[in-house]
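Hello forum,

I keep getting stuck at the same step: I have a sequence, I want structure tokens, and every attempt I make locally crashes halfway through. Rather than fight my setup again tonight, could one of you with a working pipeline run this one for me? It's a single chain of 130 residues.
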Amino acid sequence: MTKESSKQKLANLIQSYEQAVKSAQSLYDDEDLKKWAIDQSLNCQEKIKEVKKKLKDTFSLDYDSADAKNKIIKEGSEVEVLVNHMDGMKGSSAIIKGYSLPANISDIRMKDGMKMNNHKWLTNDEVKLK
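Reply #2:
Ran it on my machine without issues. Output:
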């Protein structure tokens, strides 16, 4: 496995835990689940810290730094689409809006100008950072 691939997979893991935190926090208003949801959220937040440390220790990359935006795909990144799921998709631009295993959720502006919001099925291998 290449180091670039491993960096991205660690970033994906962080984003997955971030989604789990958001999901757990959405349960806070259910009194029957609140304590359990808080425990889950705290556990995932600890996992996020562990993976960020691993990313920094192994690749000298601080996930929260501005420099990380040029090295890993995360929410808000602008990418070029490398696949042609639909005519005109390959070579188009997209903004990553969120992450949902196994794919990114993104807004895509096709080469012909058509825009698709919240497109769900672009994996990291199907895009590259701009």
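The CA atoms of residues 79 and 130 lie 5 Å apart. If your local run keeps crashing, start a new thread with the error log.
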